[in-house]
Each structure stands twice: as C-alpha cells, then as structure tokens.
Specification:
Length: 157
Amino acid sequence: MKALSIKAFVAMLSLLATFNMTSCKDDDVQPDQTQLLTGGNWKLTAFTSDPAFEWFGTPVTNIYAQLPACIKDDLTTFKPSGTVNFDEGPSKCDPNDPQTTSGTWALSADETVLSVTSDGETESWEIEDLKKDTFQANYKVTQEGVTYTFTVTFKKN
C-alpha cells in the first residue's frame, strides 16, 4: 500500500512539473512585431523633429503641439492581411474627406522598418520601440542639406 501512494505521489509531481513547464513556456512567448502592430487602433500621441523644423515660419521641435484636434483624434489600424486603415476619428478637418481611407503595410525581413503605402506614396519608418500598447518610429527627411529626424509615438486606443 505504501508503494502505491509513493507512485501516486511521483505521478502527481510529474504532472505538476509538466504543467509548470508548459505554463512557463506560454508566459515566456513574446509576440512578434506583426502581432504587436495588429489587433487594435493606434492614436498619435507625440510627433517631434530633431533639429527644429520650420513650421509656418517658426522653428519647432514639438510638431504634435501644432496639430489641430481633428488630426490628434485620428486612428490607424494595421490588419494582419497587410492593409492599413486610416480613420478620421470623431472630428474631421474637412467634412468632405472620407471617414476612412486605406493603404498597405509591410515589415522588413528583420522587422525593424515599417513601410506604409497610401495614395501611391510609400514611407518607411524605423521602428524604435514597439510594445503591446505603445509604438515609436523615426523617419528621416533631408531638405536643403539639413537632415530632420521625425519621431512619432502612438498609443493603442
């Protein structure tokens, strides 16, 4: 009888060990960049320039502060299929604009660059930080010999 209870105890320990290893593995699995980008709406929360960018005659580094509310409430949704939707949000800057437009998106092979194509134009953004609820990327533009680094930050809505 004693041998039977020891066998049962060992079997129970084996089951618990297997369960613990399985649940640890599930907890350690990190989503890839595609999984982080998709599955929600992104809202712009910061937009900066380094060095200061000429904004209607005034050099500014905090471009977000210059944006009207009708842009700050826009939503961007990346779909797993490779499409991206741009929604005007609750307010539109131009009432004649469509509520939603779309384009396509793709990640580079090493998942460090996000390319978005809309209206025949493609922009490629270097991903600086991508987490479950925040996304930050940089885009460089050279004008008149000056290279500006634009940094955008989005929060999942």
